[in-house]
Write a structure and sequence with these properties.
- 33% of the residues lie in helices and 18% in strands.
- The protein is α+β, with helices and mostly antiparallel strands.
- Helix 5 crosses helix 11 and helix 7 packs across helix 8.
- The longest helix is centred in the middle third of the chain and has 23 residues.
- The chain starts with 5 loop residues before the first helix and ends in a 5-residue tail after the last helix.
- It binds zinc ion.
- The site of zinc ion (ZN) has 6 residues, from helix 5.
Length: 411
């Protein structure tokens, strides 16, 4: 990773001289509250950012078709607003060079109440800093760097700036459906906090809701039915076993050797109970299940239903629902084409790796059949946390890597 050409040295020097501007751009973007459906608050910032490199920001997206599409996410919060943007060069005709799409979602997950933005010489913290606001700024700085150093990019870079990524990916779906008439890109890079590894696929994700119904009765009385809260506790333990099984099944598949826990079975919410002097009436569990490439949502649903019956028996009524939340398909890009060189240059060193989280990259492979990789500065372990942060050094390193990949070779 330290092998840079003399021109690579110039790029690194240029980036190091922009440290203050880099920090200001990232912290200004992080300061805008873009929790869904508030992404439109970032539009003036995004317009200025695009303008600063000779790009225009255009609102885009075929929401009518997206809503009819089988990949539309059933998340209820995703219905509220229809907005997403494309960033494109003002002047260049579309077909002059192969196009590469950089996808950087504008939305962030809700912040912790005590979360504040802070900056230091070499980092910025705040909700959305690494997931994924710094990564959009990183690519804009790459293009600015190439322009100022008089270097031409081998690809026409376009931006997809979707909404709703964190709640299922409908923004990117709408952008791709609206773009379908244009020439297909040669590849798509979804900007996410991957520690500068380039992942060539991701696992899928299915949200479940399980309502366990009993019948509340005075504590101490005879004839109490099963207890939904105790049943929920047993199901939570069994879900841990299911996770272990799923990971055992997938560990020999290509792309999963780098991690022990690529598929997670989570319990994100537990609610229920009732009057303190009664046995509980019901309990609700909500969570996600990781889905391996090749596995179907229906197969996972059937396994969950079996697990519930096995653990609880017939004492209580189990109502599973899979129609609200994430239904993110897994994907793998088998042929990387123009993106192969980027994967070779990334921290993965060309190794095929499947990411242990999901994002919008799947839409490009599934809908357009173009290679898609997931790449960016920042750590997944920092994303969505109360001290989410991004290292500016890492952003500069990622920018140098991208700039050297994009720059046309001088002969
Ligand atoms: Zn993200």
């Amino acid at each position: 990773m330290s092998r840079h050409s003399p021109e690579g040295g110039l790029i690194i020097e240029w980036l190091a001289g922009r440290r203050r501007e880099l920090r200001d751009l990232i912290s200004n973007y992080v300061a805008i509250d873009t929790r869904s459906p508030n992404e439109h608050a970032a539009e003036p910032f995004l317009r200025n950012l695009m303008r600063s490199i000779g790009y225009e920001l255009v609102s885009a997206g075929d929401w009518e078709r997206a809503r009819q599409h089988p990949d539309w996410s059933p998340h209820p919060a995703a219905q509220a607003e229809n907005v997403a943007w494309v960033g494109r060069p003002r002047s260049e005709p579309d077909n002059a060079r192969p196009a590469i799409v950089f996808n950087a979602h504008v939305d962030v997950v809700p912040a912790s109440t005590d979360q504040a933005i802070a900056t230091a010489d070499d980092w910025v913290s705040g909700r959305g800093s690494c997931d994924t606001k710094a990564n959009l700024v990183m690519v804009v700085e790459v293009l600015r760097c190439l322009q100022e150093l008089g270097r031409r990019s081998r690809y026409c870079v376009r931006f997809h700036l979707p909404t709703y990524e964190e709640i299922g990916g409908n923004g990117t779906l709408a952008l791709i459906l609206a773009d379908a008439q244009r020439s297909r890109p040669a590849g798509a890079i979804c900007l996410e906090p991957t520690g500068l590894f380039a992942y060539t696929g991701h696992r899928g994700c299915l949200t479940y809701h399980l309502k366990i119904d009993g019948r509340s009765i005075h504590m101490g009385s005879e004839g109490a039915a099963g207890d939904p809260i105790r049943a929920a506790a047993n199901i939570i333990v069994a879900l841990g076993g299911l996770e272990a099984e799923l990971n055992k099944e997938v560990c020999s598949q290509p792309g999963f050797g780098w991690t022990r826990r690529p598929l997670q079975v989570t319990v994100a919410q537990v609610s229920g109970g009732g009057w303190i002097g009664s046995s509980p009436e019901s309990c609700l569990l909500v969570g996600n299940v990781g889905v391996a490439p090749g596995a179907s949502f229906e197969a996972i649903e059937a396994r969950l239903e079996q697990l519930g019956r096995r653990v609880v028996g017939d004492d209580l009524i189990l109502r599973w629902s899979f129609s609200t939340g994430l239904r993110n398909h897994p994907y793998v890009s088998p042929n990387l084409g123009h993106l192969q060189e980027l994967v070779d240059r990334s921290q993965s060193g060309g190794e095929h790796r499947i990411w242990s989280a999901s994002c919008d990259a799947r839409h490009y492979q599934r809908l357009l059949d173009v290679p898609a990789v997931i790449f960016g500065a920042g750590s997944l372990a920092s994303a969505h946390t109360r001290d989410e942060r991004i290292s500016l050094l890492e952003v500069e390193k990622g920018a140098a890597l991208l700039a050297e990949w994009l720059a046309e070779r001088s002969i």
